[in-house]
Design a protein that fits this description.
Blueprint lengths: L2 E6 L11 H14 L19 H11 L4 E6 L4 H11 L3 E4 L12 H9 L8 H7 L2 H10 L7 E4 L3 H7 L32 E5 L13 E2 L2 H15 L3 E5 L5 E7 L6 E2 L3 E3 L14 H7 L9 E2 L6 H17 L5 E8 L5 E7 L13 H8 L4 H16 L19 H6 L3 H4 L1
Parallel strand pairs: 1-2, 1-3
Antiparallel strand pairs: 4-7, 5-6, 5-7, 8-9, 8-10, 8-12, 10-11, 12-13
Helix pairs in contact: 1-9, 2-12, 3-4
The structure holds adenosine-5'-triphosphate and magnesium ion.
Length: 421
């Protein structure tokens, strides 16, 4: 019987002592205000990216169709427990650990698996660390001429002077709209950033530190918010040109030439309160969209014409390949002023909340492709197993489905154009 290790980080359950929902709401209010919060009163969002017991149970249940699931919570004794399970026979690890400390936190568990020679699912430590640095990610995208907003990085407030003085700023390829800037050497792309700008902590996810105040129209606003982010999040701040167009998020499944974009998810900014900026940040995700007042934030498949759909899929797959993503990832895309899809960021460990009411985008895209939640999780593991030559229970990898019989999983891997959008 196949033995599947399942590596995860489980979110601590809110206790009355820590305040539960009330603490979350006040944290939300504090961050939404964006006032000069001292680091000691930083919102308690340390575990925001970890998974709930419900999600972990749903994934374990899906994996159990392919073998015996061995739970390996990524606690400090993870290396010893992995080693012990390997000695008993462990075929592969399904990895969904977000990690705890440092800028390489998502890479820790995959690196430990590599150290012991245990096959695992998803991207490798290098890609996971790269994508957790939004500036380095954009440098790689720029090198590969994948459109992404022009940007600069501020490590210290004194860097702003250089940035506003229009020096030392990376201008990334932008789909040709900047003429000679879109081709040629990176040096040729160093030039001015134009307001409005958007700023964010370089190493965070789940919209930590991303509020409406991060949209800056003037040098004064920019300086104030960059100072706040540097002080609060203790890491460099990415300063980007604001992309004013529609936003999409794209789930990718597969490897090499067989990687496919699932039906595109469109972000519906019309659902936000009147006057809100078209930004899918902290307020939209955690303050305005509440279980008692859910917002219709998504349309899937997104309503786009065939040309735009192809352009979004193209930029998504180019980013996926340029960054070395494996098995699955979610790519955030926004249109620039000319309607060209630009990559905002890439998530090689996408959120996978099982309850459709939670509006998790990857499972939503899978459902639109005709895949159940279980099929999505199983497909990720099968892709990882195929990639590494690992056999799974039920002949999943050894004997592929009968030729000609297209399963929902195959449909998702090779979506017929008309059915997927
Ligand atoms: N350059 C930009 N121009 C316009 N809007 C932007 C830009 N960068 C980010 N945003 C907005 O901020 C949101 C959050 O940014 P981003 O996706 O980088 O953060 P995140 O916290 O890592 O997101 P996730 O929750 O997907 O992990 C985007 O979905 C988008 O609405
Ligand atoms: Mg994002």
């Amino acid at each position: 019987m196949t033995r599947i290790g399942f590596a995860y980080n489980q979110k601590p359950e809110p206790s009355p002592a820590t305040g539960g929902d009330a603490a979350q709401a006040s944290a939300a209010d504090a961050i939404a205000l964006g006032d000069e919060e001292p680091p000691s009163s930083r919102p308690d969002d340390e575990f925001a990216e970890w998974d709930s017991a419900t999600t972990i149970a749903a994934v374990a249940d899906a994996l159990s169709a392919l073998g015996t699931v061995v739970r390996l919570e990524a606690t400090p004794d993870f290396p010893e427990r992995l080693r012990a399970e390997q000695a008993r026979g462990l075929d592969i690890v399904f990895n969904m650990t977000e990690g705890l400390r440092g800028v390489n936190r998502e890479a820790h568990v995959p690196a430990i698996c590599e150290f012991f020679g245990v096959p695992y699912s998803g991207s490798d430590p290098f890609t996971l660390s790269l994508c957790l640095d939004k500036a380095r990610t954009k440098e790689a995208l720029a090198y590969h001429e994948v459109p992404t907003a022009p940007f600069g990085v501020v490590r210290d407030l004194s860097d702003l002077a250089a940035l506003l003085g229009r020096r030392s700023v990376e201008r990334a390829a932008s789909g040709g709209r900047r003429g000679s800037n879109s081709r040629g050497s990176l040096d040729a792309r160093r030039s001015a950033l134009g307001f409005p700008l958007f700023v964010k902590p370089v190493h965070e996810g789940s919209s930590k530190g991303i509020t409406e105040k991060n949209y800056c129209e003037t040098a004064e606003e920019l300086e104030r918010q960059v100072a706040f982010l540097l002080e609060t999040y203790r890491q460099p701040v990415l300063v980007e040109e604001f992309l004013p167009g529609r936003e999409f998020t794209c789930a990718v499944l597969g490897n090499g030439a067989r990687a496919r974009v699932l039906p595109i998810v469109g972000i519906n900014f019309g659902a936000l309160p009147a006057g809100a900026l078209p930004v899918y940040g902290f307020e939209a995700k955690w303050v305005w969209d509440r279980p008692d007042n859910p917002l219709e934030m998504f349309e899937c498949p997104a309503v786009v014409d065939a040309g735009l759909r192809r352009a979004i899929e193209d930029v998504t797959l180019r980013a996926y390949r340029a960054l070395g993503c494996r098995d699955w990832s979610r790519v955030d895309v926004r249109l620039d002023a000319d309607g060209v899809p630009n990559v905002v960021e890439v998530n090689p460990l996408p959120g996978i909340l099982p309850d459709p009411a939670d509006n998790s985008c990857f499972p939503k895209a899978a459902r639109a492709a005709g895949m159940s939640y279980e099929q999505l999780i199983q497909r990720c593991l099968v892709l990882a197993a195929e990639r590494q030559g690992v056999a799974l229970a039920g002949g999943y990898y050894q004997s592929r489905p009968t030729p000609g019989a297209r399963s929902a999983i195959d449909e998702a891997e090779h979506p017929p154009l008309a059915a997927s959008h």
